[in-house]
Design a protein that fits this description.
- With 211 residues, this protein is α/β, with parallel strands linked by helices.
- Helix content is 35%, strand content 20%.
- It is globular and about 45 Å long.
- It has helices spanning 13-30, 93-99, 101-111, 122-128, 144-149, 173-186, 188-197; strands at 2-6, 39-44, 50-52, 58-60, 63-64, 76-79, 115-119, 136-137, 153-154, 159-161, 165-168, 206-208.
- The protein has one domain (2-119, 127-208): Rossmann fold.
- It contains seven helices and twelve strands.
- Strands 5-2-1-6-7-11-10-12 form an eight-stranded mixed sheet, with helices on both faces.
- α3 packs across α4.
- The longest helix is centred in the first third of the chain and has 18 residues, at 13-30.
Length: 211
């Protein structure tokens, strides 16, 4: 399972780094029995060495997000939030929504049938892309009304699984989102092993797509 976490200047550190650590541990454990378990990496939309997160942390970038039709395209794209409510015009999810490049990239991946996951106000970038229109989703509490007004069906849950679209609430819920994905892809044993090593007590408020 190849995972790309799409970063931009002003993303919230924990939104992106938390899921990365969960996925990195999980893929390492999975590779003990399957050398093709996959990889996780930080990507941006352009060639660059680093991005600067919302609290000033510089994060190294592993590569550029491939086109969705590329052989290098990931199986899962994860988009963090950050700075949405502050309306930071220079570096934030809000700024990226106004620029439009990130929403267009997410819309293209969605159209190609790739699974997309968001943490916190990353879902507002999906809303800007039209991905959450008529879909069950959640975001940070501060942006819930905006998500609803955008046309999404807001669900009161920490993590919402709507098939090829997975969304999580505020900040630390990214850990629960990532552990949920790990359990679904690699099994409960590996998910619990990761939760144990990071000493995280999982919260299981997951709203699953109705059958």
């Amino acid at each position: 399972m190849d995972i790309d976490i799409l970063l931009y200047d002003g993303f919230d550190e924990l939104d992106g780094i938390g899921p990365y650590e969960v996925f990195d541990y999980a893929l390492g454990y999975a590779s003990e029995t399957d050398e093709r378990a996959g990889r996780v990496r930080y990507v941006a939309l352009d060639e660059r060495e680093t991005v600067t997160a919302s609290h000033g942390t510089g994060v190294g970038i592993d590569g550029v997000l491939p086109k969705p039709e590329s052989e290098a395209a990931p199986d899962l794209v994860v988009v963090p939030g950050g700075g949405w409510s502050a309306r930071d015009e220079d570096a934030s999810a809000w700024a990226e929504a106004q620029k439009g490049d990130v929403p267009r990239a997410l819309a293209a991946y969605h159209a190609a049938g790739t699974r997309i996951a968001s943490v916190c106000t990353g879902s507002m970038l999906l809303a800007e892309a039209g991905v959450t229109d008529g879909r069950r989703a959640v975001t940070h509490a501060a942006a819930i009304d905006e998500l609803r007004e955008s046309g999404a069906e807001v669900v009161d849950a920490r993590v919402v699984d709507d098939g090829d679209l997975l969304t999580a609430g505020g900040v630390t819920s990214g850990l629960d989102l990532a552990l949920y994905i790990v359990e679904r892809e690699f099994g409960a044993e590996i998910a619990e092993r990761v939760a144990t090593v990071i000493e995280y007590e999982r919260r299981y408020e997951v709203a699953v797509e109705p059958k």
